[in-house]
């Protein structure tokens, strides 16, 4: 039997984190609202301008592609996760300097079959993905579906959404991409584990335990981060 893929979400223990569990909703944000400044609309325009320089299209086609991709970009929702729970930088940057939590989700339960939620494993590189995008144009150029610009634009959009600058590689990010920017419900069974950081206060721990005290949360595995005694690393003790 295959073990379920667990995706980790690092969070500051604030109102939005508590509401995530109380309302059982994950927010799929627009690319423009993400913390990487190279993921907004202006950066997409720069990428496309560079592609047109290298792979010229008639002006009318360029404008149409640009409009379709811009529309899809404005409507697409992204929910970001990490594939690692022991990442000290993630604990520092996204979990309030180890005062927050790391929630483990079973991927197949937050993107069930037929849900229109698609996974992307982010790749990290120094340059924009010009080569990959141009290869996609080449691939579709002689396909019967070349006139299906919506699909082509979506494929290009996902190629760009799946690429980030090398400096972000520590995140080991896996993205779930939805066809719209909105909150998506999940069941308590989708939550596999909750880990407290090195500095999470007892008060915050009690608050989180209280809102997940119902029987529907009884399967959740609870962990406490501790410093390794032999190396610069985190270990997790079951609590």
> The biggest beta sheet, please?
5 strands, mixed
What low-confidence regions span 5 or more consecutive residues with pLDDT below 50? none
Structurally, how many domains make up the residues?
A: 1
Q: What global shape is seen?
A: elongated
Order of strands, widest sheet: 1-4-10-11-12
Spell out the helices and strands N to C: EHEHHEHEHEEHHEEEEHEE
Number of helices: 8
The pLDDT mean sits at 87
What class do helices, strands and sheet pairing give?
alpha+beta
Radius of gyration (CA) equals 20 Å
Oligomer: single chain
Cα(first) to Cα(last) distance is 26 Å
Helix content: 25-40%
Question: Beta-sheet strand percentage?
Answer: 15-25%
How many β-strands, per DSSP? Answer: 12
Question: Can you characterise this structure?
Answer:
- The chain has 239 residues and is an alpha+beta fold.
- It has one domain (6-238).
- The protein is 36% helix and 25% strand.
- It has 8 helices and 12 strands.
- Strands 1-4-10-11-12 form a 5-stranded mixed beta sheet.
- Helix 2 (41-54) packs antiparallel against helix 3 (59-75), helix 3 crosses helix 7 (149-161) and helix 6 runs antiparallel to helix 7.
- The longest helix is centred in the N-terminal third of the chain and has 17 residues, at 59-75.
- This is DUF2971 domain-containing protein.
- Pfam families: DUF2971.
- InterPro entries: DUF2971 (IPR021352).
